[in-house]
C-alpha cells in the first residue's frame, strides 16, 4: 500500500477530494502506488454507467440506500445494503436505481497484483476490533472510538521507565482508519464498519 492516510488519525469524510461526472459524485478515500488500486465512495443520484477498468476487479458495497442493480453483457445483479459484490471491471457497467439514490463503497484493484476483500461487520462497545496492516476501515453508520498505541492491557516501552501513551480519537460516519502492525489500531463503538483488505493475489 502507499501512504495516503494519516496514521493513526482517521481520515475525515469531509476532507475527501470530490469529483462529479455522469450522475455520480466520487470521493476518493485512498489509492495505491500510481493509482494501481482505488478505494472510493460513490453517490449515485441517477441511472448511469460505471466506467471500465481493464484488468481490474471491482468490489461494490451499498452503504446507504436500498437497492442497486448492475447490468453488463445482458445480465443483471441486484446489490442489497451491506452485501459486498465482486465482479470484473473490464467492461462498463450499467447502473439502475429502482428505489432511489444509492451510496456505495467501490474498490478497484488489478487482479494480477491485488486481491481486494470487503467485509461489513457490527462494532461492539466492549470488544475492540483491530485494523491490521493493508486494511482500511470505513465507518458506515453509528459512532466509534479509535484507540492507538497498543492494546488496552499493554503499553509500549520506548526507554527504561518510559512508555508510549495510548491515544483515542472519535470516528464519525464515513471516516476511514488505516491499519498497522505490530500495534494495530482498534475501534470500539456502535454501528457498522466496512473493512477493506488488500492482499496479494492467490498463487496457482
Descriptive overview:
The protein is an all-beta fold and 204 residues long. The strands form 4 sheets. A 6-stranded antiparallel sheet has the order 1-2-3-10-5-8, with no helix packed on it. Strands 11, 12, 13, 16, 17 and 18 form a 6-stranded antiparallel sheet that branches. A hairpin with a 2-residue loop joins strand 6 and strand 7. The protein starts with 17 loop residues before the first strand and ends in a 5-residue tail after the last strand. The N terminus is likely disordered.
Write the layout of secondary structure elements.
Elements: E1 18-21, E2 24-31, E3 38-44, E4 48-50, E5 56-64, E6 67-72, E7 75-80, E8 85-88, E9 93-96, E10 102-110, E11 115-122, E12 129-130, E13 135-148, E14 156-159, E15 162-164, E16 167-171, E17 176-178, E18 186-199
Antiparallel strand pairs: 1-2, 2-3, 3-10, 4-9, 5-8, 5-10, 6-7, 6-9, 11-18, 12-18, 13-16, 13-17, 13-18, 14-15
Keyword list:
single chain, disordered N terminus, 204 residues, six-stranded antiparallel β-sheet, mainly beta, globular
In brief, what are we looking at here?
It contains no helices and 18 strands. It has 204 residues and is mainly beta.
Structural class: mainly beta
Question: What best-fitting shape do the alpha-carbon axes yield?
Answer: globular
Q: Which residue ranges are poorly predicted, with pLDDT under 50 across at least 5 consecutive positions? A: 1-6, 152-158
Strand content: over 45%
N-to-C span: 23 Å
Percent in helix? under 10%
Rg of Cα set: 18 Å
Largest sheet: 6 strands, antiparallel
Total number of helices: 0
Instruction: Give a count of the beta strands, DSSP E runs of length 2 or more.
Output: 18
What's the mean pLDDT score?
Answer: 88
Order of helices and strands: EEEEEEEEEEEEEEEEEE
Amino acid at each position: 500500500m502507499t501512504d495516503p492516510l494519516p496514521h493513526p488519525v482517521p481520515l475525515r469524510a469531509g476532507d475527501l477530494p470530490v469529483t462529479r461526472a455522469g450522475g455520480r459524485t466520487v470521493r476518493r478515500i485512498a489509492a495505491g502506488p500510481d493509482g494501481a488500486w482505488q478505494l472510493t465512495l460513490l453517490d449515485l443520484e441517477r441511472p448511469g454507467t460505471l466506467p471500465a477498468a481493464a484488468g481490474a476487479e471491482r468490489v461494490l458495497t451499498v452503504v446507504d440506500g436500498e437497492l442497486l442493480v448492475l447490468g453488463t453483457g445482458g445480465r443483471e445483479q441486484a446489490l442489497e445494503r451491506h452485501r459486498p459484490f465482486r465482479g470484473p471491471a473490464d467492461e462498463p457497467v450499467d447502473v439502475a436505481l429502482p428505489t432511489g439514490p444509492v451510496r456505495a463503497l467501490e474498490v478497484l484493484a488489478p487482479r494480477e497484483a491485488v486481491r481486494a476483500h470487503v467485509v461489513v461487520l457490527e462494532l461492539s462497545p466492549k470488544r475492540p476490533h483491530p485494523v491490521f496492516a493493508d486494511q482500511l476501515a470505513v465507518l458506515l453508520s453509528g459512532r466509534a472510538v479509535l484507540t492507538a498505541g497498543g492494546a488496552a492491557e499493554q503499553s509500549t516501552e520506548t526507554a527504561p521507565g518510559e512508555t508510549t501513551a495510548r491515544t483515542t480519537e472519535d470516528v464519525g460516519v464515513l471516516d476511514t482508519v488505516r491499519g498497522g502492525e505490530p500495534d494495530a489500531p482498534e475501534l470500539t463503538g456502535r454501528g457498522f464498519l466496512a473493512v477493506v483488505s488488500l492482499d496479494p493475489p492467490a498463487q496457482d
